[in-house]
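Hi V.,

You were right to ask for the full record rather than a summary. Here it is.
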Amino acid sequence: MGNFDMGYNWTQSQDHLLGASDHKAAGHQGAGEITGLIANCLIAASQGCVDAYFDLGVAFSTGSHGAVCDLIEAHKWFNLAAVGGHDEAAYCRAEVSEEMTAREIAEAQRRARAWIAANTRRAA
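Predicted structure:
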């Protein structure tokens, strides 16, 4: 799955975070609206939404929707989505891994564990 496909999947999966008309409008607005889309995903992710984990992975892997391209963050979010049972996340994580060093992958895994620990404590 190339970046085009992941970007397409991002667009298709946004309906659960924003209404379809809001999402289309956000695509034609300034960076503030686009950053709001990332903020909505982060809120949903903090509530355990596996689709939001995946969407954040796509955003960071492609540098889209206001996110800076960051493969470590992308790997982290794809890893969280894969652990949560998202069907495509493990494949996307593997694809991103091909472009990363072993140290970057280790850092992404550390960040994923830290996210899980922080959000488990918050839920308790």
